[in-house]
Amino acid sequence: MEYAPKVMFHVFGFPITETVTTTWIIMAVIIFIAWLGGRKLEKVPGKFQNIMELVVDGVNFLTKSTMGEDKLSFAPYMGALAFYLAFANLIGLIGLRPPTADLTTTFALSLLTFFMTQYFGLRSKGLGYIKGFAQPFILLLPINIIGEIANPISLAFRLFGNIVGGLIIMSLVYSVVPLILPVLPHAYFDVFSGLLQTFIFVMLSMVYISGAMED
Asked: What is the value of pTM for the model shown?
């Protein structure tokens, strides 16, 4: 198995990698599910609408319990992030390379969280947010800044390391045992670990953003 994303085709001279094409597929699936779930809402919901409402209620509850009820407006972003990561981490089950096994993907997602943290921290506290880096005294300013910059780096490498590590282990398993035996490793590395990393990434994003906004 190749661990670097291969180039699938070129558009106006720009290489389109496997990571990008798989991400497009995931986006199309999520958009279709969202359209299907919201196109015809009924007062007496059917099975599919019940499932969608359960998912939305779950995301809203998790956002309120982690960030606070006043930050419920972050639920759509957190839900979209969770959906994308879940699909991206689980897509290896159908033989496609997970986009999260590409460091550029995990860094892009972690930078989204980082910039949102800084933006909403500044909007909520103003200059007091910047002054907070010098607390409890000015000598800690460099350390606090380094710690803040380390957050997106740790987010990116944690997700990337777990996903690509699972890819490497599964390729080794497939090389030494028949196809039927890797079912249990798939259940762990693709399903359990993939969903766990999704939960961790979303939870840390909530914690970082809400922490920056708190007084």
From this structure: 0.84
